[in-house]
């Protein structure tokens, strides 16, 4: 199986400057290639440029600008061009499907944070063995950078990526031939229901609290963003520019901390489920649709007037959904289950919390859930916690949990 490992880098101050310059130069290459494609498409001939055409120009580009482009790995520059090509492939797929296209955009230096080396040993080298006490990774043009390797790397390292998150640097290893580590059977199965009041609820009635990390940091983020707004980015004064940079770094650090806290919670919750259950059923959620703002409601009697559509109330729910991070959690749960030899079954989420779980009933109605937490079947009178009822129904649909007698 495949697995990705992410480790914190410990670069020197000089190496940080070189790594920043590498990202900047790759960003310039990406934007130049994007501009070339836009110009070709805008030409009356509608010429379409592909990855192969731009990759063939790399030799000339490196020879013309040896200080900015010629000093970096050829393969990593090809990977940057492939990244742009994938963006255009997705763009044309959206056009053909009749969806909102979303044309590929130019990248700002502060938003281009990743460089990928397609093969270990080509412009980069992962210098590590299981017995190493000090691990280093070597990048062309940068040198050997220390790595905080907090766990052993298993399998064969295929690709190596370098990623900047705020003021931190990480190396991301993509490995194949990683051996699975199946856990001992427990004889237990469960359905889980994702929620906002509780992060998840199992069919056995266990609740995992929703930590709401973004909500906890809301006051500090608001204060940091107010400081950032006081110093606009496009100013000439050096002192104001310095303050703008510091305020922006503070906002980035706060968001990075929230993200790390959320990931830590997801990993621990998923590992707990995988260790305790042989098979787990979960809802197949359309998270993007659930977090979408409601459509406006025009007033048929007054032109240009819109009726109330509950957008303000829905905005709070949307923020809670994105703060919970269900999609990231389910992805983590999927790969942990595959590594441990567990079974993960996604099911249709429609009406799972509105259907009576009793075998003799099965009545579905919106009236069965009068409140957020309470479930009461209007036909048979069955009562229970709405989230647990949803988890039971998820398990029933997956064929893992028996209906309530």
What does this structure look like?
With 405 residues, this protein is an alpha+beta fold. It folds into 2 domains: 3-176, no CATH class; 189-211 and 263-398, Nucleotidyltransferase, domain 5. The protein contains 11 helices and 16 strands. The protein has helices spanning 13-42, 51-55, 58-64, 74-96, 213-216, 218-230, 238-276, 287-290, 311-324, 326-340, 386-398, and strands spanning 3-10, 114-117, 124-127, 135-139, 143-148, 156-165, 168-176, 189-194, 198-202, 207-209, 279-284, 297-298, 306-307, 343-348, 374-376, 383-385. The chain has a 7-stranded antiparallel β-sheet with strand order 2-6-7-1-5-4-3. Strands 10-9-8-11-14 form a 5-stranded mixed β-sheet. Strands 12-13 form a two-stranded antiparallel sheet. Strand 15 and strand 16 form a beta hairpin. The longest helix has 39 residues, at 238-276.
């Amino acid at each position: 199986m495949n697995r990705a490992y992410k480790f914190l880098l410990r670069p020197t101050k000089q190496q940080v400057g070189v790594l920043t310059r590498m990202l900047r130069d790759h960003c310039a290459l990406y934007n130049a290639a994007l501009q070339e494609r836009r110009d070709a498409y805008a030409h009356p001939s509608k010429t379409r440029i592909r990855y192969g055409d731009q990759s063939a120009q790399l030799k000339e580009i490196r020879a013309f600008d040896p200080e900015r482009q010629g000093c970096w790995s050829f393969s990593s520059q090809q990977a940057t061009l492939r990244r742009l090509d994938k963006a255009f492939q997705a763009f044309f797929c959206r056009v053909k499907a009749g969806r909102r296209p979303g044309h590929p955009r130019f990248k700002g230096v502060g938003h281009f944070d990743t460089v990928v080396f397609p093969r270990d040993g080509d412009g980069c080298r992962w210098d590590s063995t299981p017995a190493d006490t000090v691990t280093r990774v070597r990048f062309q043009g940068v040198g050997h950078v220390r790595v905080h390797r907090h766990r052993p790397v298993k399998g064969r390292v295929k690709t190596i990526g370098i990623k900047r998150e705020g003021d931190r640097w990480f190396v991301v290893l993509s490995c194949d031939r990683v051996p699975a580590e199946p856990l001992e059977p427990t004889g237990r199965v469960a359905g889980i229901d994702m929620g906002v009041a509780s992060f998840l609820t199992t069919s056995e009635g266990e609740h995992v609290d929703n930590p709401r990390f973004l909500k906890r940091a809301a006051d500090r983020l608001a204060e940091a963003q107010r400081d950032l707004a006081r110093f606009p980015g496009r100013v000439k004064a050096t002192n104001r520019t310095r303050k703008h940079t510091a305020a922006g770094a503070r906002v980035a650090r706060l968001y990075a901390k929230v993200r790390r806290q959320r990931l830590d919670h997801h990993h621990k919750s998923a590992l707990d489920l995988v260790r305790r259950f042989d098979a787990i059923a979960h809802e197949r959620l359309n998270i993007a649709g659930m977090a979408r703002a409601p459509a406006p409601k025009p007033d048929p009697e007054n032109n240009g007037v819109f009726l109330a559509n509950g957008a303000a109330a829905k905005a709070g729910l949307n923020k809670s959904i994105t703060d919970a991070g269900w999609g990231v959690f389910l992805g983590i749960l999927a790969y942990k289950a595959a590594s441990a030899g567990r079974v993960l079954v996604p099911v249709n989420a429609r009406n799972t919390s509105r259907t009576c779980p009793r075998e003799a009933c099965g009545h579905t109605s919106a009236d069965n859930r009068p409140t957020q937490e309470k479930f009461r079947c209007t036909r048979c009178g069955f009562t229970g916690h709405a989230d647990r009822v949803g988890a039971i129904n998820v398990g029933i649909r997956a064929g893992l949990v028996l209906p309530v007698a």
